[in-house]
Amino acid sequence: MAQGPDRKYMTRTQAEAAHVDVGLRNYMLRVYNYMALGVAYTGALGMIVAMNEQLVVTIGSMFWLFFIGILGLGFFAPRIMTSRSVGAAQVCFWVYASLWGAILGPILYMYAQMDPMIIVRAFFITAATFAGISIVGYTTKKDLSAMATFMIMAIIGVLVAMLVNVFFIQSTMMSLFTSIAVVLLFSGMTAYETQKIKNMYSEGDLADTAAKKAIFGAFMLYGSFVVLFIHILNILGIMRGE
Range of 118's domain? Predict the structure, then answer.
């Protein structure tokens, strides 16, 4: 008889844990679905641009303007997403996806001239890499936040190296090395972001708060996926050309 209350407590605790698991699973599914929609939209927009040479030339001539827009939105959008309305969060996400789609068009056009199958292979490699790393980030018990600062600083360093290469050195080998570094760093960031998104979940969130968290999570993972895709594409292109 003395075990009765303990059994009731354990049953209630297990039920609560199961309820949290279902809620967390639905929340993460919402994040991934929203991210997948963003990737699909970006890919479709990129292909539309790639099939129109005039658009390719026009956007190519404004490449750095779009690139600065992406960096700026990547910096400011998280603050807007977490502090404003769900509508504002959605606008930020889709504007971000549109900028990436536009800038991806000339890139896809260039690789399509080389070998259209490179684009297909790059996408599937990216999808497999992203899925594997994201699962690691979701399931690991180790706190990954400690390495986030290092990775951010390393990403800034690699970005500087890429700009130096583009404007001054123009070395294919350096482009290969920087792309490999980007793939490694953003793989780590994907794991960290997945863990962060998981930890953001709270069963008691209001509907608007939960929606904004899901969109913000999709925004983070979406950016990492696109960056991984572009640099895996670059690696495959360089390896094919060698």
Answer: 4-241
